[in-house]
Amino acid sequence: MTETAIELVGVNKWFGDFHVLKDIDLTVGAGQKVVICGPSGSGKSTVVRCINRLEKHQKGTIRVNGTELRGDAQTIAAIRSEVGMVFQQFNLFPHLTVLDNLMLGPVKARGLTRAEAEKTARHYLARVHIPDQADKYPGQLSGGQQQRVAIARSLCMEPRVLLFDEPTSALDPEMISEVLDVMIELALDGMTMVVVTHEMGFARKVADQMVFMDAGEIVERGAPEEVFAAPKSDRCRKFLSQIL
Ligand code: ADP
Ligand code: MG
């Protein structure tokens, strides 16, 4: 039996009076890849942000590697050390070199020496195919390279799970595939991944489970080939017809 990496049961969240997540149930096994799609404003970012506690849910349970996500600082720190996140807008420090961006977390949060952190950083820079960019500043790199640095930065923390929130949406079209290729390699290596994306080619290649959200609900889920071939709901069919 596959170990469960992430489990959401009956998760609800409100922003003030606005019911943004409605009874979300989601199970991600260790090594599985889940792709979440759906219209803008449907709650996709909020779901992934709740998984590493960038947002707080008010009802239901979230467990990550068996630990229930509660409000105490110790649990939050433990979850953050196991769950990496890659954002649409890279979020690199512009005044630090690529190498220093990658070394910061491991030195501050994981207690590595600078020498150890540099070794780890160079290892993951090579893994995202830009070993020669270590001494540049983020502003000197293309968007696709910056996003690969952001992925390497997450990997330097040795996470057990990686969350991606529309990682290619801010990129020029010609740079999308270089980022998706790195994500596909991670997927094939067995990383547990939850990916919010509208890149349906990526979903077809790697997703074990596709989830379609609309208005704060999971409206449909299944293997990608099932969801693409025969969406059960009108909302999902309409959405797919707009993006495919
Ligand atoms: P998606 O990622 O699917 O586009 P989000 O999860 O970002 O959707 O947002 C879902 C809904 O919640 C949207 O209507 C958005 O405006 C609202 N929302 C998101 N963040 C906040 C916030 N911090 N405060 C109030 N409303 C928010
Ligand atoms: Mg979003």
**Largest sheet report:** 6 strands, mixed
Percentage of residues in strands = 25-35%
Hetero groups in this structure are: adenosine-5'-diphosphate, magnesium ion
Shape: globular
The average pLDDT is 95
| Stretches with pLDDT under 50, minimum 5 residues | none
Secondary-structure class = alpha/beta
End-to-end Cα distance? 35 Å
Measured on Cα atoms, how large is the radius of gyration? 18 Å
The sequence of SSEs as H and E is EEEHEEHEHHHEHEHEEHH
* Helix share, percent: 25-40%
Number of H- or I-type helical stretches: 9
Number of strands: 10
Q: Taking strands numbered 1, 2, ... along the chain, how are they ordered across the largest sheet?
A: 6-7-8-3-9-10
Family: Belongs to the ABC transporter superfamily.
Protein name: Amino acid ABC transporter ATP-binding protein, PAAT family
GO molecular function: ABC-type amino acid transporter activity; ATP binding; ATP hydrolysis activity
InterPro entries: AAA+_ATPase, ABC_ATPase_HisP-typ, ABC_transporter-like_ATP-bd, ABC_transporter-like_CS, MetN_ABC_transporter-like, P-loop_NTPase
